[in-house]
C-alpha cells in the first residue's frame, strides 16, 4: 500500500493573500477552555487541523460527534497515539482498536527517504519530511526544523508557512516567533515583520519578543530614535525571569548599537556592540583551535603531486565581510557558474588526511597516493553536491580559506582563486558588529583587538604563498565592485573564462530566494543600492588605538588610508 | 525473543561492565560488546557511532547493523560527517522494522492486556528508535509481569547504555533493594563506588544491604556516611530521599526506637509536594458519580462473580490471589468495570449520544460495560468463577449497590491501627485510584470516609457480604479460604499452594500497632479507635 500523505503538505494554502491568516485568531486564547483548538480543528490546513484535533484529544475535550472524524485522521501517528489513549481512558475499546489499526504505515520508508534527502542536501524534501514527522510525533520542534530546512531549500517563502503552523499550534513557544521574525527580517520583509508584531501585541502573545523586533522594524524603516524608545522598557528588566528575553539580550544590544550608530552616537554604539559580543561569547569555544588548525595544516609535508586534472573549480577567499557574499551571489546569477557557499569540500579532504595520519583509517601505499586521494575527495564532494551539470565553472566560496593558503597550495598547486579585498578597518569593524554562528574561527572576532590579530594572521598565511600580482589569483576590491559593478564583475568573469551575462546584474532578486547562510544576506538582498559601506572613520577612536595596530601593515599593503 | 541470557546473568554482566564506565568510552563500549544481548549490542553500537568511536574495521558492521533503525539513524550521520557518502547512503537505504507497525502491535497488545507482548515490543521499539523511554517502559511492564529482577535487568540495560541517566541509576537501586537481591546490590554499589558516581545511591545501597543482613546500626551508619545534604532534595531526587527516610525508619524500628522511627517515616510525607484537599476531592468525586448513576436497570445476580473489597492494605489482594489458586476460580486485579460504567454514564449525562437517548438504554449499556471489563481480562480457561480484587471500590458502596443490588462481596478487614502503622511505615502505596495521604491525619480521614461509605450501605450482618479477617487469614489459612470459597459454593482445593503463600506473607506482617500506640493518642486519630471498636478489635 502507498503510505498516506497529507492533502496539502506541499501546498501553502494560506500563503496567498494573507500569510498570517491562522494567527489572526489568537483572541480565542483569551476565551480559555477549548475555543482555540476547537476553532483550528476545522482548519483548511491539514497540519493545523491535525495538531488542533490532537490537542483536543490530549485534553480529553473532543466531542463524541467527532469520534469518526478523529478516526479518519488516525493514519497520522500523533492522532493515533492520542486517540488510542483517549478512547482507552473512556473505556471505548472498540474505538481504541479502530484507532490502533487505522492503517498508519510507511514510517520506515519515510525515515529512509528523509535520511537520503538529508545526504543529498535536498532541503526542500528534508523540510517536508520534518513536517511529516511532526504529524507522526506531535513534537513542535520538528516544525521549526521543517521551517529551517524549507528556508534552506526555498527561502523565506517556503519557510514561513511552517513557522505560522508552529506558532498557531504552540502560541506560547517564543522560539517559534523568534525564528519567524528572523526569517522575515533577514529577507528584508519588514512589512510582514511589522504585521506579525501587530497581531502578537494585539493578542498579548509573545509580547516581550515582539517588542524587541518592533524596535528592529523602526530601525529598518529609518527611525533609530523610535527604535531606542521601543527598547526603553527593557532597560531595568530582570531577563532571567522573562521567557525568551535572556536569549534576546544580544539582539537588544545589537539593535541599540545599530540605532546609536544611525544617530551618530558612535562611542555609545561601540559600547553596545561590545556588550553584544560579550553576551555572544561562548567560553567553551576556543579561538586558538582555529589558528592552530591553520598552522598544523600549513606545516604538513606534502610531496609534489601529479598535475590536477580538474580546471573547472575556483576558490573564493578573503576575509569575512569583505564582499565575498555579494560577489558570490553575482556570479551565481551567471548561467554557466555554479557557486558553493561555505561547503565542506576541503574539510572532507582534511578529515581524510587527519584520519589517516592518526591511524584511524588505513594508510594508502605512499604519501603521494594519500594526498591525491585527499584531493580527489575535494572534487568528489563538489561533484556530489553539484546541482548544475551545465555549469562550466564551479566557485567554492569560503572567505577564511585564506588561512589555509599554504595547505591548499601544496594539495592543489594548480588551483585558481578569487580574493576579495576591502579596507582592513572596515572589515574588522564590520566583523565586530556582526553576530556570526559560534565556531572557533568566528570566536576570534569578539573584540577589535582579537579580530585585528586574527585578520593579520590570516593575511600572513595568504601572502606567504600568494602575491598581489599572482596570476592564479584575481583580486576584487569591494568598493570597486559596488561602484563599478559591471566592469569589475566582467573582469572576474573573464578570469573565469566567461562572458558577461545580463542576469548577473539582477543577482539581488535571486538572492531573495536563498537562505541567509551568513549575516551578509540582508544587505546582498538590497542589491547594489546599499552603496559603499565604509564606517571606520566614524570609529576612528578605535582605529587610532593600539588595538588596531596589527591591521596597519595590511592597510598599507592594500594601499588604503590609515587612521 | 530479545534476550538470550537469564535476568540474573544479564544483571551480573551489565553491572560488572558498568563498573568500568568511568575508565573511558572506548574500553567501556568494548566491554559492552562482549555481552550476548541484542539490546545491549545494538545500543552500544549506536553509542559508538554517536560518540564517533567506530573503528575503521567496524565500519562494514555499522552499515550491516543499520537494519536496526536505532543504529541506522546515527550511522548515516556518522558516515556523512566522515565524508563517507557511499556508506552513508547504504546505511540510510537499509530497511528497518517500521515504527508504526510496532506501535500498532503495541496498541493491540495493550488492548489484549498481553504484557509479554508489550515487553517484547518495547524492546523492539528501542532497537528501532534508540529511545530510552522504551527501555523504561519495558522495565515497568516486566516488573508487573515477571517481578523486580526482570525489571532490574531491563533497567541495567538502560543504565549500561545511558550511564548518565540518574533515573535509571535510582530505579536499579530500588528494584534490587526491593527484590532483596543482595549479591547484585552489593556488586552495583561496588560498581558505583569504583566509578565515583552516585554517592547518594551508594549510601542507600549500603544501607539497604545492612538492613537485609539484619544490621540496623550499619544501615544508619551507611546513611550518615553520606555527604551532608546529599540525601535530600534538591541534590537527591524526591524518590531517593523518600527511600532514605524509609530506610532510616526501618533501621530505627528494628532498634526499637519507635518514636524516632515514626518521625523518620512521617518525614517522607512532609517532604512530598503539597497536595491539598485530596480527601475532600475524593469525597466530591464519589458523590458526583452517585448522581450520574441514578436508578434503573441493574446488574442481575452473577453467582459466579464476587468482588473482594477492603481498605487498601487489609489483604484483599492476598485473599484474591489465594483464591485464584483454586482451579475453578480466576482472580482478576485492577478491573476497571466500575470506572467504565461511570465514564459512560457521565459522558451521557454531559453529552447524550443520539443512539442511546433513553435513560434505561444508557443504564443498560453502562451495566454491560461494567461486566465487559472483567470478561476482557479472563484468561483461565478452567475457571468458572471470578474473584475481582477491587479494594478501591469500597468507597463507592452506594453506587455498587445501585448498579448491582444482588451482587456479593468478600470484605477483608484488618486492625485499623495496624493499617495505619503500615501506612506510616510506607510498606506499600495505597491502591491506585485512591488519594495518597501525606500525613497521618489525612490517612485517618480517608479511612473514616471509606469505612463510613461502606457501612452506610452494607450493614455488618448483610447476607450479601462475607467478612474475612486478615489476621484470621494468616492464622488459619485453610479454614478462612474454605469459608471464602464457600461464597461460590465451591469446596477449597488449593490449600497447599495458598498456605505457602500465606505463611510467607504472615511471617512478614506481624501486628505492631502496640509499638506505635503513641501515634494514636491524638484527637485526629480517634476515628481509628472508633472503627477498631466497631470491628471488634482491641485498641488499648
Describe the structure.
The complex is a heterodimer of chains A (563) and B (540). Chain A is mainly alpha-helical and 563 residues long. Chain A is 55% helix and 5% strand. Chain A is built from 29 helices and 5 strands. Chain A has helices at 27-31, 35-40, 46-58, 67-72, 77-89, 93-100, 107-119, 123-137, 140-154, 156-169, 174-186, 190-203, 207-220, 224-231, 245-262, 266-280, 287-298, 324-332, 345-357, 367-384, 405-411, 424-433, 448-463, 478-483, 485-495, 507-512, 521-524, 540-543, 552-557; strands spanning 313-317, 337-341, 393-397, 416-421, 473-477. The longest helix of chain A is centred in the middle third of the chain and has 18 residues, at 245-262. The radius of gyration of chain A is 27 Å and the shape is globular. With 540 residues, chain B is mainly α. Chain B is 61% helix and 5% strand. Chain B has helices spanning 7-18, 25-33, 38-50, 59-64, 69-81, 85-93, 99-111, 115-129, 132-146, 148-161, 166-178, 182-194, 199-212, 216-224, 238-254, 258-271, 278-293, 316-323, 337-350, 359-376, 397-403, 416-424, 440-457, 470-475, 477-485, 495-508, 526-535, and strands at 305-309, 329-333, 385-389, 408-413, 465-469. Chain B is globular. The model of chain B has no long low-confidence stretch (mean pLDDT 89). The chains are: A mainly alpha (563), B mainly alpha (540). At the A-B interface, α5, α6, α7, α19 and α20 of A face α5, α6, α7, α19 and α20 of B.
Q: How many beta strands in the DSSP annotation of chain A?
A: 5
DSSP helix fraction of chain A: 55-70%
How confident overall, as mean pLDDT of chain A?
91
Chain pair with largest interface: A-B, 42 and 40 residues
Shape of chain A: globular
- Our count of helices of chain A gives 29
Average per-residue pLDDT of chain B, rounded, comes to: 89
State the end-to-end distance of chain B.
57 Å
Radius of gyration of chain A: 27 Å
Largest sheet of chain B: 5 strands, parallel
Strand order in space, largest sheet of chain A: 2-3-1-4-5
Amino acid at each position: 500500500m502507498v503510505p498516506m500523505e497529507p492533502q496539502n503538505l506541499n501546498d501553502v494554502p494560506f500563503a496567498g493573500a494573507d500569510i498570517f491568516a491562522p494567527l489572526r485568531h489568537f483572541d480565542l486564547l483569551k476565551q480559555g477552555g477549548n475555543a482555540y483548538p476547537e476553532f483550528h480543528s476545522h482548519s483548511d490546513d491539514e497540519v493545523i487541523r491535525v495538531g488542533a484535533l490532537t490537542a483536543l484529544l490530549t485534553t480529553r475535550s473532543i466531542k463524541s460527534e467527532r469520534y469518526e472524524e478523529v478516526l479518519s485522521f488516525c493514519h497520522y501517528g500523533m492522532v493515533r497515539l492520542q486517540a488510542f489513549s483517549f478512547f482507552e481512558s473512556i473505556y471505548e475499546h472498540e474505538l481504541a482498536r479502530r484507532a490502533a489499526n487505522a492503517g498508519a504505515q510507511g514510517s520506515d520508508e519515510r525515515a529512509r527517504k528523509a535520511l537520503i534527502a538529508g545526504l543529498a542536501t535536498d532541503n526542500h524534501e528534508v523540510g517536508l519530511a520534518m513536517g511529516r514527522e511532526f504529524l507522526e510525533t506531535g513534537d513542535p520542534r520538528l516544525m521549526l526544523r521543517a521551517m529551517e530546512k524549507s528556508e534552506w531549500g526555498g527561502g523565506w517563502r517556503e519557510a514561513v508557512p511552517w513557522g505560522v503552523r508552529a506558532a498557531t499550534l504552540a502560541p506560547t513557544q517564543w522560539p517559534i516567533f523568534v525564528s519567524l521574525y528572523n526569517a522575515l527580517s533577514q529577507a528584508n520583509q519588514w512589512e510582514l515583520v511589522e504585521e506579525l508584531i501587530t497581531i502578537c501585541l494585539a493578542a498579548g502573545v509573545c509580547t516581550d519578543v515582539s517588542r524587541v523586533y518592533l524596535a528592529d522594524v523602526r530601525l529598518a524603516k529609518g527611525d533609530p530614535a523610535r527604535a531606542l524608545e521601543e527598547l526603553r522598557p527593557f532597560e531595568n528588566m530582570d531577563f532571567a525571569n522573562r521567557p525568551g528575553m535572556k536569549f534576546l539580550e544580544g539582539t537588544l544590544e545589537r539593535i541599540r548599537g545599530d540605532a546609536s550608530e544611525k544617530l551618530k552616537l558612535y562611542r555609545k554604539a561601540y559600547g553596545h556592540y561590545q556588550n553584544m559580543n560579550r553576551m555572544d561569547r561562548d567560553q567553551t569555544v576556543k579561538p586558538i583551535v582555529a589558528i592552530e588548525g591553520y598552522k598544523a595544516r600549513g606545516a604538513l609535508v606534502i610531496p609534489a603531486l601529479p598535475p590536477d586534472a580538474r580546471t573547472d573549480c575556483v576558490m573564493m577567499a578573503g576575509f569575512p565581510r569583505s564582499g565575498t557574499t555579494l560577489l558570490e551571489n553575482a556570479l551565481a546569477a551567471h548561467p554557466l557558474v555554479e557557486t558553493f557557499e561555505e561547503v565542506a569540500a576541503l574539510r572532507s579532504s582534511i578529515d581524510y588526511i587527519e584520519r589517516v595520519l592518526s591511524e584511524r583509517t588505513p594508510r594508502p601505499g605512499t604519501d603521494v597516493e594519500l594526498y591525491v586521494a585527499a584531493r580527489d575527495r575535494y572534487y568528489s564532494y563538489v561533484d556530489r553536491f553539484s546541482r548544475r551539470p551545465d555549469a562550466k565553472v564551479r566557485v567554492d566560496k569560503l572567505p577564511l580559506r585564506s588561512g589555509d593558503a599554504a595547505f591548499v597550495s601544496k594539495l592543489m598547486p594548480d588551483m585558481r582563486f578569487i580574493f576579495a579585498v576591502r579596507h582592513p578597518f572596515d572589515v574588522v569593524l564590520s566583523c565586530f558588529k556582526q553576530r556570526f554562528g559560534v565556531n572557533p574561527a568566528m570566536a576570534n572576532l569578539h573584540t577589535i583587538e582579537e579580530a585585528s590579530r586574527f585578520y593579520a594572521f590570516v593575511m600572513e598565511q595568504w601572502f606567504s604563498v600568494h602575491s598581489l600580482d599572482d596570476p592564479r589569483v584575481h583580486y576584487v576590491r569591494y568598493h570597486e565592485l559596488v561602484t563599478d559593478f559591471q566592469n569589475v564583475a566582467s573582469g572576474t568573469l573573464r578570469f573565469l573564462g566567461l562572458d558577461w551575462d545580463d542576469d548577473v546584474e539582477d543577482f539581488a532578486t535571486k538572492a531573495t530566494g536563498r537562505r541567509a547562510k551568513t549575516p551578509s544576506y540582508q544587505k546582498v538582498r538590497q542589491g547594489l543600492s546599499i552603496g559603499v559601506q565604509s564606517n571606520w572613520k566614524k570609529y576612528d577612536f578605535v582605529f587610532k588605538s593600539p588595538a588596531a595596530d596589527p591591521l596597519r601593515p595590511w592597510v598599507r599593503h592594500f594601499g588604503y588610508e590609515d587612521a | 525473543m530479545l534476550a538470550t541470557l537469564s535476568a540474573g546473568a544479564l544483571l551480573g554482566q551489565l553491572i560488572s561492565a558498568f563498573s568500568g564506565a568511568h575508565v573511558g568510552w572506548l574500553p567501556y563500549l568494548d566491554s559492552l560488546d562482549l555481552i550476548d544481548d541484542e539490546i545491549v549490542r545494538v545500543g552500544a553500537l549506536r553509542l559508538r557511532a554517536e560518540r564517533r568511536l567506530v573503528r575503521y574495521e567496524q565500519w562494514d558492521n555499522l552499515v550491516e547493523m543499520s537494519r536496526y533503525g536505532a543504529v541506522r539513524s546515527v550511522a548515516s550521520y556518522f558516515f556523512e560527517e566522515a565524508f563517507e557518502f557511499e556508506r552513508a547512503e547504504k546505511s540510510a537505504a537499509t530497511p528497518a522494522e517500521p515504527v508504526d507497525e510496532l506501535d500498532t502491535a503495541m496498541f493491540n497488545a495493550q488492548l489484549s492486556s498481553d504484557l509479554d507482548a508489550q515487553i517484547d515490543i518495547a524492546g523492539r521499539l528501542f532497537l528501532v528508535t534508540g529511545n530510552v523511554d522504551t527501555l523504561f517502559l519495558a522495565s515497568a511492564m516486566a516488573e508487573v509481569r515477571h517481578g523486580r529482577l526482570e525489571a532490574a535487568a531491563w533497567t541495567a540495560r538502560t543504565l549500561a547504555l545511558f550511564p548518565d541517566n540518574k533515573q535509571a541509576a535510582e530505579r536499579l537501586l530500588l528494584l534490587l533493594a526491593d527484590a532483596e537481591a543482595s549479591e547484585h546490590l552489593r556488586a552495583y554499589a561496588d560498581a558505583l563506588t569504583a566509578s565515583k558516581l552516585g554517592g547518594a545511591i551508594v549510601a542507600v545501597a549500603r544501607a539497604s544491604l545492612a538492613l537485609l543482613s539484619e544490621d540496623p546500626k550499619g544501615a544508619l551508619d551507611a546513611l550518615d556516611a553520606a555527604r551532608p545534604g546529599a540525601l535530600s532534595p534538591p541534590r537527591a531526587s524526591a524518590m531517593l530521599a523518600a527511600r532514605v527516610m524509609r530506610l532510616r525508619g526501618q533501621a530505627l524500628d528494628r532498634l526499637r526506637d519507635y518514636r524516632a522511627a515514626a518521625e523518620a517515616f512521617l518525614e517522607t510525607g512532609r517532604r512530598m509536594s503539597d497536595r491539598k484537599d485530596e480527601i475532600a476531592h475524593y469525597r466530591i468525586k464519589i458523590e458526583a458519580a452517585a448522581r450520574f448513576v441514578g436508578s434503573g436497570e441493574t446488574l442481575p445476580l452473577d453467582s459466579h462473580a464476587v468482588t473482594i473489597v477492603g481498605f487498601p492494605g487489609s489483604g484483599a489482594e492476598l485473599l484474591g490471589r489465594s483464591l485464584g489458586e483454586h482451579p475453578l476460580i480466576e482472580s482478576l486485579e485492577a478491573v476497571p468495570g466500575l470506572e467504565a460504567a461511570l465514564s459512560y454514564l457521565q459522558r451521557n449525562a454531559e453529552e447524550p449520544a443520539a443512539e442511546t437517548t433513553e435513560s434505561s438504554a444508557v443504564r443498560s449499556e453502562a451495566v454491560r460495560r461494567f461486566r465487559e471489563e472483567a470478561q476482557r481480562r479472563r484468561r483461565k480457561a478452567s475457571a468458572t468463577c471470578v474473584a475481582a480484587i477491587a479494594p478501591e471500590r469500597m468507597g463507592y458502596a452506594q453506587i455498587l449497590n445501585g448498579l448491582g443490588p444482588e451482587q456479593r462481596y468478600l470484605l477483608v478487614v484488618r486492625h485499623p491501627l495496624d493499617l495505619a502503622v503500615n501506612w506510616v511505615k510506607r510498606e506499600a502505596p495505597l491502591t491506585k485510584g485512591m488519594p495518597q495521604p501525606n500525613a497521618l491525619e489525612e490517612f485517618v480521614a480517608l479511612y473514616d470516609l471509606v469505612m463510613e461509605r461502606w457501612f452506610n450501605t452494607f450493614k455488618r450482618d448483610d447476607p450479601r457480604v462475607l467478612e474475612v479477617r486478615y489476621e484470621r487469614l494468616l492464622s488459619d489459612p485453610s479454614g478462612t479460604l474454605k469459608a471464602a470459597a464457600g461464597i461460590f459454593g465451591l469446596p477449597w482445593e488449593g490449600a497447599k499452594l495458598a498456605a505457602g503463600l500465606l505463611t510467607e506473607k504472615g511471617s512478614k506482617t506481624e501486628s505492631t500497632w502496640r509499638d506505635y500506640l503513641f501515634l494514636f493518642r491524638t484527637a485526629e486519630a480517634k476515628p481509628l479507635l472508633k472503627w477498631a471498636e466497631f470491628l471488634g478489635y482491641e485498641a488499648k
